[in-house]
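so ive been stuck on this for like two days lol. basically i have the seq below and the ligand is pyridoxal-5'-phosphate, smiles is in there too. i just want the complex predicted, nothing fancy, no docking runs or whatever. if the output looks off dont worry ill sanity check it later, just need somthing to start from for the group meeting slides
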Amino acid sequence: MNRQVYMDNAATSFPKPQSVTDAMVHFMTEVGADPGRSRHDKSMEASVIVDGTRNKLARLFNIPDPKRIVFTLNATESLNTVIYGVLNPGDHVIITQLEHNSVIRPVRHLEHIGIITVSVAPCDKMGILDVRALKDMIQENTALIALNHASNVCGTIQDVIAVREAAGKVPLLLDAAQTAGAIPIDVQAMGVDFLAFAGHKALYGPQGTGGLYVGEGVPIRPLKRGGTGSVSEQERQPDFFPDALESGTRNNVGIAGLGAGVDFVLETGVETIRMHERNLLESLVEGLIDVPGITLYGPLKTQIQVPILSVTFDQALPDNLHQSFGGCGNRAIPATFESVHPQQAGTILSQEFEILVRVGLHCAPLAHQALGTFPDGTVRFSMGYFNTFEEVEIAVGAVKKIAEKKDFLDD
Ligand SMILES: Cc1ncc(COP(=O)(O)O)c(C=O)c1O
């Protein structure tokens, strides 16, 4: 019997290091209290754990003041906090074609109710942002640029420094959902004003964890207001960090687990993690590049790609060439009747091969329009540090069998 192969790390990483579970069990069984609310031992101990996670994240992202990091439930909450907390009536915002719905939907909502205007900077068929086009979109009232650091559809990593330069003084929000923990991030060197990240992906924390870094002196309104355990005599929300954006009892048990996840990343080393994941991606691409009847999307260059590979099973090639169209994306012709639909391929991968992937649009519809895979989407293989070369081989073998349409399909 096949062992399950988990290749859905872009949704959430699995497995987690044992230390993450241990830290959560320790918090639940030995600590349990709410940090920053009471003066008793257990509350103080909980504060040490939560502040410890903040300090570790600050080390990882080279954030000068850990207090500028606030905990959220996920990257979506972090992104919403910035979009609703920074933009004002009459503002203009630039997003990119690679954005996730957690950016697209809030900005489109604000646009729909007449608060802001939105421009979408295009990317090419490999998912590389057109920085010049983005620069040309900047207006006097542009108040925010939201940049996807690495696409959760095709893995493409953007050149943040180039965007920072193009942006001039416009505040930059970096969506690091797919990159935090997976590639080096230095908010100072990159000139990032807001860093939104998920705790449950490449930082190996549990679900229900995420965070947001807000640069010093950058104005932002909170998404929610309430108890912070500080200046309780005051009826107004405190304006100091992290309390300004952190109201109510947090997911402290999750934050304890996230601390252990960040420890794992720091101790293993982002460079070591990155190298392993680049090698995995390279071997997946090598295994699939010449397989007839499939199309691969994204740059297919590991130096500018996180370990995410989108695939479609179709004869998307001109002149009936039986070669994959690796590295090009953007189908030359629509998928033919011979295609195996991504949904069907996903079901076969799961049921016949026990390979767990995600299929469809991956909450990023505009990216699929750029790649030519809208509306059916792709089959997405997304790997993490715990994937092995043996698993890549299993995935390659399965894709080949599906592409040959052996045994699974009624012809
Ligand atoms: C690029 C990107 N942004 C945002 C998100 C949302 O992350 P979360 O599930 O932590 O809210 C995801 C999740 O897949 C993503 O890939």
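The longest helix spans residues 41-61. The pocket of pyridoxal-5'-phosphate is lined by residues 10-11, 74-76, 100, 102, 148, 152, 175, 177-178, 198, 210 (CB under 6 Å).
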